[in-house]
Design goal:
The chain has 629 residues and is α/β, with parallel strands linked by helices. It has 21 helices and 23 strands.
């Protein structure tokens, strides 16, 4: 539980991908991965600058250069692997729109990706419409997964007439019926893919999305049925792509090798049956090391992007060469690996609930002896007796509570005991922060951690943290040149006991508390949550009707500054009400009627009426999160 005032405490150098640096003044600075030796840009300074422009926390901050770097690294690593392994095919990646559907994100991926003929993957009609509005490069692929009806298939086939390389991936025999019917009606052949259900199962949070339990894909017998049906319809030449999904956030590189090898086995067998495949789509799986552990577990991975690409290409080449099959174009649907690193959530701490009492309390001669026993614990708080002190303090406090419940001590006596207990625990915690302690003692002290109340909604901005215990690195953004004096859990602004974060990435492992500083009067204390670009914006929930946060996209400048590229204001209360079927004008009208009734009954003055209605109107136009007066 030892605490030191440097970046190593939070593990920034370990998990930060070289994108963050602790500056001499203690601020967390952003580094531009596209510019060598660029000066770090202070995150607190960025937030203060945004506030001066009227953009207040919580803010979702997207960094354009980080997104571009991830895209360039993936394409560059595949190019390097293809060259070094002697692979004779190309790489044509696609971004799964579902991972982050925001217009600004998609447009920047398409813009940067044109150089690499980088495409898009869609899984619904709305996503297809998004993709068809994008200026994809000539060789870019548009992969259509998911359940498809007549309208979806018709639009996908017709889009080829305006230059899109749209591939309809067959998920079931029923979809083939739809495709054949629409194709004959249009008099135009489609480009088709077939999704194969692999038997190999990955580890990690998304293990159930792979293997026999995966939701999508055809078993071997159904695959053969589809191939023979296409042959009968003289449309086997349309089947150009084999698709298999490896899984999301695959933690172990050997799982990737195993699933690629199995996918290749299907591929070579189907080519031997006359299927004219040109593309092998290996789906998603490229993970992010959220903890910096470099281990195969739920929040980390044991490989880098170059290692991932080399393993994919090398495995394919060996299997294809052994089967004497021509090398196809490799397709992957990396979403998390492209966007996760580029976004961070920044919010301010609004208040604290501190589990301590700085003032010592003396026992009087007429106090119950348990109060005297509690006071005495402070006399032997030394490093080697900390566990004993906690055990004794808990025992005496609990005995007092029991006596109160049975009417044997007064509320005043119990309150005094509670203050003494908090003082004793605060002394123990302070010493424990500078001492190596046992896991058992740490578990005891976690029960008495401080709570920092923060201006964000866990359910809206970090749903995976709540739903699947996803870890994201979380760090105070300033004063990292000072030694933190407290350990806290973070509570959000919702009225829900689940709205808290109590697992944190530190240099020495995962902790149930976050080292933080005492708040200073009239000074904002900002906290950043990193690597939130994948899924978090899409999965957000309107718990307590907290809507989308303010969103800004920036570019970093070489001199330690930034340019504001794009801004989206967070949801107003009026907008959020409409999401749940309320008409804001109707709400205002109904409120006015009640106010006017109160005026008619002389319960409210005319002046008070104006103030009340103005306040209601202003709230409808206001931010759903806490705003300074």
């Amino acid at each position: 539980m030892n605490t030191t005032p440097d970046s190593d405490l939070y593990g920034i150098d370990r998990w930060g991908y070289g994108l963050l640096e602790v500056m001499p003044n203690g601020d967390v600075g952003l580094l531009d991965p596209l510019k060598e030796n660029s000066a770090p840009v202070s995150l607190p300074k960025i937030i203060k600058d945004l506030k001066d422009r009227g953009i207040t926390p919580p803010v979702l901050l997207r960094v354009n250069s980080i997104l571009e770097n991830s895209l360039r690294q993936l394409n560059g690593s595949f190019a390097d692997a293809i060259k070094s392994c002697g692979y004779k095919g190309k790489y044509r990646g696609v971004f799964p729109v579902k991972v982050n559907q925001q217009a600004e994100v998609i447009s920047r991926i398409v813009k940067v990706g044109r150089e690499f003929h980088y495409g898009l993957e869609v899984g619904s009609k709305p996503e297809l419409l998004i993709a068809l509005s994008q200026p994809l490069a000539k060789e870019s692929l548009l992969i259509c997964n998911g359940v498809k009806d007549n309208e979806f298939v018709r639009l996908a086939i017709l889009s080829r007439k305006i230059g899109f390389n749209t591939v309809i991936v067959l998920e079931s025999p029923k979809e083939l019926d739809i495709v054949l019917r629409v194709s004959k009606d249009l008099g135009q052949k489609p480009l088709l893919g077939i999704r194969i259900k692999l038997t190999n199962q990955i580890t990690g949070n998304w293990a159930k999305s792979s293997g026999d339990q995966s939701s999508f894909g055809l078993r071997a017998d159904k695959v053969i049925d589809v191939v023979e049906r296409l042959r009968e319809e003289n449309m086997l030449d349309c089947l150009v792509l084999q698709h298999s999904h490896l899984g999301s956030q695959v933690p172990n590189i050997n799982d990737i090798r195993g699933t690629v090898k199995e996918a290749c086995r299907f591929y070579t067998e189907l080519v031997a049956l006359g299927v004219p495949f040109k593309f092998l789509d290996l789906g998603g799986g490229l993970g992010i090391d959220y903890t910096g552990e470099k281990q195969a577990n739920e929040n980390s991975i044991n490989y880098t992007v170059p290692e991932y690409c080399t393993n994919v290409v090398e495995t394919l080449k060996y299997a294809l060469d052994e089967a004497e099959v021509e090398h196809p174009t490799i397709v992957t649907e990396s979403g998390r690996g492209i966007v996760a690193l580029s976004s961070m959530l920044v919010f301010d701490v609004l208040d604290t609930s501190l589990y301590d009492d700085a003032d010592a309390v003396k026992a009087n001669k007429d106090d119950h002896h348990l109060i005297g026993d509690l006071v005495a614990v402070e006399s032997y708080i030394v490093p080697e007796r900390l566990q004993e002190c906690v055990s004794d303090a808990l025992y005496y406090r609990d005995e007092l509570r029991s006596l109160f419940m049975h009417g044997n001590v007064t509320i005043t006596a119990m309150a005094k005991g509670e203050r003494i207990f908090q003082h004793v625990i605060s002394r123990i915690k302070k010493m424990a922060y500078d001492t190596e302690i046992s896991e058992q003692l740490e578990e005891h002290l976690i029960r008495f951690a401080d709570t920092y109340h923060c201006n964000f909604s866990l359910f809206q901005s970090l749903p995976d943290v709540w739903a699947i215990d996803q870890l994201h690195p979380i760090v105070p953004l300033q004063r990292l040149n000072e030694k933190p004096t407290r350990r806290a859990v973070l509570s959000d602004i919702t009225c829900d006991s689940d709205g808290k974060v109590d697992r944190f990435v530190l240099a020495d492992g995962i902790s149930k508390t976050l080292p933080v500083h005492d708040l200073k009067p009239d000074e904002e204390y900002y906290i950043g949550v990193f690597f939130v670009g994948a899924y978090q914006e899409t999965l957000g929930d309107l718990h307590n009707l907290f809507g989308d946060t303010n969103v800004v996209t920036i570019d970093l400048t070489a001199k330690g500054g930034f340019k504001l590229l794009h801004e989206v204001e967070g949801d107003t209360i009026s907008q959020v009400l409409e999401y749940v079927e309320y008409d804001a004008n109707r709400c205002l009208s109904d409120f006015k009627k009640m106010v006017d009734a109160a005026v008619a009954e002389d319960a409210l003055s005319i002046k008070e009426r104006r103030v009340l209605i103005t306040a209601y109107k202003d709230s409808l136009k206001g931010y759903t999160y806490f705003e300074e007066a």
